[in-house]
Amino acid sequence: MANELLLDTGAFVALVDRSERRHADCAAVLERWTGAIVTTEAVLTETLHLAGPRWATQKVCIEFLLRGAFTLVSASAASLRRTAVLMEKYHDVPMDYADATLVALGEELGTNLVFTLDARGFSAYRLDGRKTFRLMP
Known about the structure:
CATH superfamily: 5'-nuclease
Largest sheet: 5 strands, parallel
CATH architecture: 3-Layer(aba) Sandwich
Distance between the termini: 18 Å
Radius of gyration: 14 Å
Number of domains: 1
Strand order of the largest sheet: 3-2-1-4-5
């Protein structure tokens, strides 16, 4: 598997909001990680929504990307098709759109490393229908 780390919404929110219960855990992962950290537009949108209406907090989210700390990967037609298949398959978990984009991106990049606080979802999801995710923190 590759050396990219998939960034999910909960971890992103915890990184930018010091009052989050798991902030220190997520900050420690970020400090130790030396490879690329990738995320999707769906995760960014969800993170900005959960960060709340204050521009100062939303600005921190955007600045992570603008500084190059995280790489934003846009959806393609192929990844959107794969996302729809995944959401149908995992509708009982349930799988939301942001999670589905990360699973599709993991398959595309060949990485099973996910930076998430959603242990329930990412413990159930499988890459290419069989490979499990390694969760961080």
